[in-house]
Design brief:
Layout: E1 13-22, E2 25-35, E3 40-44, H1 51-58, E4 66-71, E5 74-75, E6 89-92, H2 104-108, E7 115-116, E8 119-120, H3 122-135, H4 151-164, E9 169-173, H5 181-196, E10 200-204, H6 208-214, E11 217-222, E12 225-231, H7 237-245, E13 265-273, E14 280-285, E15 289-293, H8 300-307, E16 315-320, E17 323-324, H9 330-335, E18 338-341, H10 345-349, H11 356-360, E19 369-370, E20 373-374, H12 376-390, H13 406-418, E21 424-428, H14 436-451, E22 455-459, H15 463-469, E23 472-477, E24 480-486, H16 492-499
Parallel strand pairs: 3-10, 3-11, 6-9, 9-10, 15-22, 15-23, 18-21, 21-22
Antiparallel strand pairs: 1-2, 1-4, 4-5, 7-8, 11-12, 13-14, 13-16, 16-17, 19-20, 23-24
C-alpha cells in the first residue's frame, strides 16, 4: 500500500488482511492499512465503516478475528488494555479515558508515576504537566480535578497525555470534535512539530477541511472494507466524500423552509439570565429553523438548558405557545411539547449499556404503558417506526447502543426526543462526530420537521451548518446575544465579527 514516493520508508505499523467479528456480526473484511514514519495518515469512512474498530485493533484495545499486525516489519501480538503504550503506540480515545476523581497531573502520570527516595515526586510531575499544557497553549490548572473540567478541557488533557508519553504512533479518534478552532490550530501545530521529529499519526475525523489541511495520506473504508489509499494531495473534499458514501453528494443542505412573518410565535424568551447568560431575548416562529452561533463558551448551551428547564434561571420568562413555562421543570416542558437534544449523546443522551428500544422509549415511557406495565408490542412498533423514519441501520437489533456507530447513535437520540411528539425542538450540535453522509441525512431530517410545522433551534459550532440550515441566526458572545442575522447577513464573515466582538447589534 505504500506509494511510489514513499518506497524508501518501510511502514512502522501495518495491518494485513485484518478481519473482525462481534459474535455473528462481521465489521471488518480483510482490511490492509499501514502507517509510515513521520506521516499523518487520515482514516476516513461513514459511521459504521469500521474505523474505530480498526484503530482499537491497531492499538491493542481489541483483538482481530484474523489477519496480521506488523510493527517495524515484524509480526506482533499487541498487549491489551493500553499496555501497547510501552511499545510507543498511544490511542487518544473518542470517549474520554479519564478518572473524574483524579487531578490533571495524576491523570497524565497514571501508571508511570515519578518517584524520589521511594515517594511520589509530585513537584516534578506537576512541573512536567504544566510544561506539556503550556506547549499546547492550554490554561488548564494542573491541580484541577477531572470532574471539574469542561468537555473541551478533558479532550486537551487526553491530548496532553499522548504527547507526554513521547509516542512513536498516535491514534487520534475525532480529537477536534469538542475543540474550538483556536484550540484545533494549536493541536495541529504540535502534530506538525512531532511529525517532523518522526512521530506518526493516524487521524480519524469527519471534518474534510481538517483532513485536507493536516494529513499526508488518506485511507477510506466503507462497510468494513478497504476502498482506497492515496496521497491527500491527489484528492479533494468532494472526492473523499464520494469514496466514503459510494455516491455523489450533490446537495448537502436541503432547501430552507422560510416561515411567513405572520406565523404563530411558539416560543418567546424575555430577559432570561443565568449565572453566565445575561438578559437574553428572542422569539421562534412555527416552522422556523433558528440557529445559535458563537465561539465555544459563549453561553449557547447554558441559555437553551435554562429555556428547557435543565438549568436554573435567575430572571426572565419563557413563554411556550402563549403560556408561561415555569423554570427548572423539564418534565413540564416535555409535556407541553418542548424537547431538548443534548450535544453529549454518550454522557447524557443515551444509556450505552442498554439496547435500542430501552433508549428510544425512556423519555416517553408513559406512552407505552398498558395498565401499569410497559407494552412490548407498543415499544416494538415505535422502534420499527423510528428505524424506518430515521434510517437507523444495524446488523443486529439486539445490539447494545454503545456498540453502535456514532451516526446511528445520533439518529436514535433524535428518534428518542421525537417520541414525545414535540412542537419545539432544541438540537445542540446536531452532527458532532458523525460522517458526511449521515450529516446530510440529519440536515434533511431537520428540514422535514420544519416543513411539518415544527420549530427548531439549532446550536452549532460549525458555521457552514447554521448558514446552510437556518433562516435566522442569533450570535452569542460571553453570555450575551450580540446579533440576530437574517438574509444576506448570514455569512461566515459577519457571524465571526459578532462572535469575536468586532461588531455589536443588540442592546445588553
Amino acid at each position: 500500500m505504500t506509494s511510489v514516493g514513499d518506497s524508501a520508508r518501510a511502514p512502522v505499523l501495518a495491518a494485513e488482511r485484518i478481519s473482525k467479528s462481534f459474535g455473528d456480526v462481521q465489521v471488518l473484511f480483510s482490511v490492509d492499512f499501514d502507517v509510515l514514519p513521520g506521516e499523518v495518515h487520515a482514516l476516513m469512512g461513514e459511521n459504521g465503516a469500521g474505523k474505530s474498530t480498526l484503530v482499537k485493533i491497531l492499538s491493542g484495545f481489541e483483538q482481530a478475528s484474523s489477519g496480521t499486525i506488523l510493527l517495524d516489519g515484524e509480526p506482533v501480538i499487541l498487549p491489551p488494555n493500553g499496555a501497547a503504550e510501552a511499545l510507543g503506540i498511544v490511542l487518544i480515545h473518542q470517549e474520554f479515558n479519564l478518572a473524574d476523581h483524579l487531578t490533571v497531573t495524576e491523570s497524565l502520570f497514571l501508571g508511570r508515576e515519578v518517584t524520589r527516595f521511594g515517594m511520589l515526586d509530585r513537584k516534578h510531575m506537576r512541573a512536567e504537566t504544566r510544561r506539556v499544557l503550556d506547549q499546547l497553549g492550554s490554561r488548564i490548572d494542573e491541580n484541577a480535578l477531572i470532574s471539574s473540567l469542561a468537555v473541551a478541557d478533558k479532550q486537551m488533557v487526553e491530548i496532553a497525555k499522548a504527547i507526554s508519553r513521547r509516542a512513536r504512533i498516535v491514534f487520534m479518534d475525532e480529537p477536534t470534535a469538542v475543540l474550538s478552532r483556536e484550540e484545533t490550530e494549536v493541536l495541529f501545530d504540535q502534530v506538525r512539530k512531532l511529525r517532523a521529529s518522526g512521530t506518526s499519526f493516524v487521524f480519524v475525523s469527519h471534518k474534510l477541511d481538517e483532513v485536507m489541511e493536516l494529513t499526508d495520506r488518506v485511507t477510506v473504508l466503507r462497510d468494513g472494507q478497504w476502498v482506497k489509499t492515496a496521497p491527500t494531495s491527489a484528492l479533494d473534499g468532494e472526492a473523499i466524500a464520494q469514496l466514503m458514501v459510494g455516491r455523489e453528494l450533490s446537495s448537502l443542505y436541503p432547501n430552507k423552509h422560510e416561515p411567513d412573518v405572520d406565523e404563530e410565535i411558539v416560543l418567546s424568551v424575555k430577559g432570561l439570565s443565568t449565572g453566565f447568560v445575561k438578559n437574553a431575548s428572542f422569539e421562534l416562529r412555527r416552522g422556523e429553523v433558528l440557529g445559535f452561533s458563537g465561539l465555544i463558551g459563549s453561553g449557547r448551551t447554558e441559555l437553551m438548558e435554562a429555556v428547557a428547564g435543565l438549568r436554573p434561571r435567575l430572571s426572565g420568562e419563557v413563554w411556550l405557545k402563549g403560556a408561561v413555562l415555569e423554570p427548572q421543570d423539564f418534565r413540564e416542558a416535555n409535556r407541553r411539547g418542548l424537547a431538548y437534544m443534548t450535544k453529549d449523546r454518550k454522557g447524557k443522551g443515551l444509556l450505552l449499556g442498554e439496547g435500542m428500544t430501552a433508549n428510544l422509549t425512556l423519555q416517553s415511557m408513559e406512552r407505552h404503558l398498558r395498565h401499569i406495565y410497559l407494552d412490548p408490542a407498543s415499544e416494538a412498533k415505535a422502534m420499527a417506526r423510528a428505524k424506518r423514519r430515521f434510517d437507523i441501520r444495524v446488523r443486529d437489533d439486539k445490539i447494545k447502543v454503545g456498540r453502535m456507530s456514532g451516526g446511528n447513535q445520533q439518529k436514535l437520540l433524535l428518534a428518542k426526543i421525537m417520541e414525545i411528539e414535540p412542537q419545539v425542538i432544541v438540537i445542540d450540535e446536531p452532527t458532532r462526530g458523525i460522517d458526511v453522509g449521515t450529516k446530510q441525512q440529519i440536515y434533511h431530517f431537520i428540514a422535514a420537521l420544519a416543513r411539518e410545522g415544527r420549530s427548531i433551534i439549532v446550536i452549532s459550532s460549525e458555521m457552514p451548518e447554521v448558514i446552510g440550515l437556518c433562516t435566522r441566526v442569533a450570535v452569542m458572545r460571553e453570555g450575551r446575544m450580540v446579533g440576530l442575522l437574517e438574509g444576506e447577513e448570514i455569512n461566515e464573515q459577519t457571524i465571526m465579527r459578532y462572535a469575536a466582538g468586532l461588531k455589536r447589534q443588540m442592546a445588553s
